[in-house]
């Protein structure tokens, strides 16, 4: 879903008429030059050790209830003859399925043995039915957290959006509308064809098997246990996609089209959330952990709508970059502890923002600045 690539910046020597001047070291720009706040980093670890364990009694009911509400509301949208009522059901379905879908983010960070059966259950109930199995994010999102990759051309989830043209922002959002159609084509056509045409299979894996926004990102071939997991997830998603096409062709396209509209809305919500998850101001330099934190965004209470557009703990995205393995249900408590311990004048406070609209406005104004 990337919009434009990142071009590298090349430093050149300046020449006079007699000799080349010595090369000057390239200094980090913007937040990339931020030194680590060791007090904040130490406090983040020490103050949260007792809440760092994922609790199955929270994960399972939350995921199951979100999925059940989502599918129930989707059925209501499909079965309702009243367009207004159908639309209301569709909005409820989009919000609930959006929450259920975003557990894919948790799957990339929790230890594989932390929640027995949760990965399988989520893929069976959410990932495969929505044609977004966890393979699309596992092995990808963790690269975004790598110390030497974040904000660079090697980061699959980063583009310097704040430094791009104003038209790039609406395009970034609008392209998400086409995501469910692309996922259907991928699983129903491209993956099966790729199984019998190896060059196509490699292309689909490298270019169309990751939830990334960097168009230059290429996935490496899966190996070992992950490769086996990819095989079964792809098989399940392709079988489901082919069934959807067959059933729609023989029984009518209305349910599938309504489903596509609902998933399009979830994709747009996620794209808007992505738009404000970071400040997107880095120009390709490697960043310190503190620099990554300050380039990321928390929208803590009292922002009342944040749990809708940034569910499953993603309203604390900056804090998540300090503590990537912290379970989503503990982020609110971790935030309260750090804010109380470090104070209102600390580095920690600088990544906290009031809400969605101020962040969108800040980003839009940044794209309009002359470069």
From TrEMBL:
<feature type="transmembrane region" description="Helical">
    <location>
        <begin position="171"/>
        <end position="197"/>
    </location>
</feature>
<feature type="domain" description="Fatty acid desaturase">
    <location>
        <begin position="88"/>
        <end position="341"/>
    </location>
</feature>
<keyword id="KW-0472">Membrane</keyword>
<protein>
    <submittedName>
        <fullName>Fatty acid desaturase</fullName>
    </submittedName>
</protein>
<feature type="transmembrane region" description="Helical">
    <location>
        <begin position="116"/>
        <end position="137"/>
    </location>
</feature>
<dbReference type="Pfam" id="PF00487">
    <property type="entry name" value="FA_desaturase"/>
</dbReference>
<feature type="transmembrane region" description="Helical">
    <location>
        <begin position="58"/>
        <end position="78"/>
    </location>
</feature>
<keyword id="KW-1133">Transmembrane helix</keyword>
<feature type="transmembrane region" description="Helical">
    <location>
        <begin position="84"/>
        <end position="104"/>
    </location>
</feature>
<keyword id="KW-0812">Transmembrane</keyword>
<dbReference type="GO" id="GO:0006629">
    <property type="term" value="P:lipid metabolic process"/>
</dbReference>
<dbReference type="InterPro" id="IPR005804">
    <property type="entry name" value="FA_desaturase_dom"/>
</dbReference>
């Amino acid at each position: 879903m990337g919009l434009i690539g990142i071009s590298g910046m090349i430093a050149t020597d300046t020449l006079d008429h007699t000799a080349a001047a010595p090369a000057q070291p390239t200094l980090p720009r913007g937040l990339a030059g931020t030194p680590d706040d060791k007090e904040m980093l130490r406090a983040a670890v020490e103050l949260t050790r007792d809440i760092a364990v994922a609790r199955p009694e929270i994960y399972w009911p939350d995921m199951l209830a979100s999925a059940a509400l989502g599918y129930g509301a989707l059925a209501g949208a499909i079965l309702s003859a009243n367009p207004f009522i159908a639309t209301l059901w569709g909005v409820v379905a989009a919000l609930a399925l959006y929450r259920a879908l975003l557990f894919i983010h948790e799957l990339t960070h929790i230890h594989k043995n932390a929640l027995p059966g949760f990965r399988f259950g989520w893929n069976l109930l959410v990932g495969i039915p929505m044609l977004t199995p966890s393979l699309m994010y596992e092995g990808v999102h963790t690269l975004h957290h790598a110390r030497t990759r974040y904000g660079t051309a090697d980061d699959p989830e980063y583009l310097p959006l704040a430094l791009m043209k104003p038209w790039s922002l609406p395009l970034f959002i609008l392209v998400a509308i086409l995501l469910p159609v692309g996922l259907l084509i991928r699983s129903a056509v491209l993956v099966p064809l790729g199984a019998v045409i190896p060059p196509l299979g490699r292309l689909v894996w490298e270019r169309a098997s990751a939830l990334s926004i960097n168009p230059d990102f290429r996935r490496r071939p899966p190996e070992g246990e992950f490769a086996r997991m990819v095989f079964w997830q792809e098989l399940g998603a392709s079988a489901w996609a082919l069934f959807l096409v067959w059933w729609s062709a023989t029984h009518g396209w209305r349910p599938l089209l309504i489903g596509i509209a609902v998933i399009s809305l979830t994709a747009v919500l996620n794209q808007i959330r992505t738009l404000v998850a970071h400040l997107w101001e880095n120009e390709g330099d490697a960043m310190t952990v503190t620099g990554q934190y300050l380039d990321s965004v928390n929208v803590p209470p009292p922002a009342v709508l944040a749990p809708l557009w940034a569910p499953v703990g993603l309203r604390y995205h900056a804090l998540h970059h300090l503590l990537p393995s912290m379970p989503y249900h503990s982020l609110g408590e971790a935030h309260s502890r750090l804010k109380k311990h470090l104070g209102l004048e600390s580095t920690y406070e600088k990544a906290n923002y009031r809400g969605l609209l101020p962040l969108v406005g800040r980003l839009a104004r940044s794209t309009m600045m002359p470069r």
